Amino acid sequence: MKRLIDIMMEEKRDVLLSVLFGVLAGLTSVALFGLSGFMISKSALQPPLYIITIMTALLKLFGAAKAGSRYAERYVSHRATFTILSNLRVSFYEKLEPLAPRIFGKYRSGDLLARIVGDVETLQNFFLRVFYPPLVLVIVFLSTVLFTMFYSVWIALVLLAGLLFTGFIIPGLLSLKQRNVMRGVRAKRAQLSTETTELLYGFRDLKLHQKLDKKQGQLLEMANSYAGEQEKEGVQAAASQSLNAAAALFVSFMVLVLGAYFVTIGELDGLLLAMLVMISLTVFDNAVPMALFPAHFEETRQASSRLFSVVDEPAPAPKKQRLDEERAFSIELKNVTFTYPGEERPALQDVSFKLPAGTKTAIVGPSGSGKSTVLQLLLDMYAVEHGDLFIGETSIRDIQSESIWSQTNVMLQANHFFYGTIKDNLQIAREDVTDEEMKEALRVVELPFSLDDPVLEGAENVSGGEKQRLALARVLLKRARIWLLDEPSSSLDVLTEGRMFNHLLKAAEKDTLLLISHRLTGLEKMDQIIVMENGRIAEAGSFGELMAKQGYFYELKQMERQVIE
Predict the structure, then answer these.
(1) Residues 382 and 240 occupy one common structural domain
(2) Contact 299/182 with Cβ under 8 angstroms?
(3) 15 and 92 in one domain?
(4) pTM listed for this prediction
(5) What are 426-456's pLDDT values in tens digits?
(6) CB–CB of 153/161 below 8 Å?
(7) Is 217 inside a domain boundary?
(8) Is 112 inside a domain boundary?
(9) Based on the number of CB atoms within 10 Å of its own CB, is 265 exposed (0-12), middle (13-18) or buried (19 or more)?
(10) Which residues contact residue 508 at a Cβ distance below 8 angstroms, ignoring those fewer than 6 apart?
């Protein structure tokens, strides 16, 4: 909550104005109805016309002031709320972005979506319903109590007791019951969002395996459960508001009874009784909404807790070094050991190798041997636990991630394509890329697309091989001096793979290239081949050296030949 308040106080001016206009609206409302009550009583005694005229003018003045201040309060408070939400989203994203992609190993995408969207939207209630309304309530109530003391100390004490009960004691007791209800709503919403996301992502597989009805039934049960929790929340809120309203009316009734008693014994002027009753009825208009304060407080507390827990991981220390010089850097791993968060088995164990600048290296091995993990560490997606990794002569611990990404041509196993056109998806390679360059890249990768051809969400209208070649075209357009390629041809046929491989070697002729592959064809042109197994380097050398050794690589090559034959 402290972090939420810190973000909110960035809009200190609007916060103060909201409180000011809220207090003015509350006080003018009390003054308007109090004067109305006094005017009714006074009119019964047929006072001079100028008295009625003055009181009527004051009523119009208070009415206009009430409407104006209430409008100003709503305008400023909502403007502050939207600005605070904007600041909150930006602040949250700035903390979240450095944690990607490892954050996905801790949270499911549906749960993250529920937090980023739902919980942030919930926090709009913090300022509007939790922070400044109690301040306005206390100021207006205390001002009213002080005014009432000039006429009757006992009635002022009754109003003060009413403030304590309707503003603090009753909401405080209700908050204990509300907490469990709100926790259930949050948990059910996160579960529903997560399972809905799973259904949408896995719709095709569920349909093919005839499990769609079962999954839909489970989702419907979760939706009904979530609706039930919301119903409990609504019933609880309605009951709380009714209880607070009843308490407020009881206090006003006590003011009427006590005031009538003081009039009969001569301790209170009868002309003031209607004014005091009207004041008590009006001032509690600000207290009745406090019945919902526990619900909004608990809701925002849990939302802020869920939201900030995502980014509670310690931020990495800022890095200062940049790879500004556009050249082919060397790459070196020294005794690197790494384990993914939440796992016990190390993905890499004491891995050491060096890629001299301008050389071509392939890392091969069976699935799960740690090949792609090397690439993740080189891209600074995860931090090296033990050992060190160097790009050029600089440790990756000191290099800014953005600098690494700007100096590398990266092609991953799963490449994302945005909804739009072929041109839109190629332009992200480089800001100054021209249409002619994009057309030439499409020609090189043998794609019969035009720049205006559409790309659907998830590139559903593009085949697996076309996706890889489109990703390759994007890589060719970037023109960085370090190439990091993870299974760039796994969906291509052998002939197309050979042609694409030749294009890659030609484009990266003077650059440092690292190829991750489980296929062993075309590796004769590599300067170095590193064979990995179970997170360790099994052997390394040139293609000829490894074949002559007749070790693990030789066995893999023989098995591949048998499969092809």
Answers:
(1) no
(2) yes
(3) yes
(4) 0.66
(5) 998 888 899 999 999 999 999 999 999 999 8
(6) no
(7) yes
(8) yes
(9) exposed
(10) 360, 409, 483
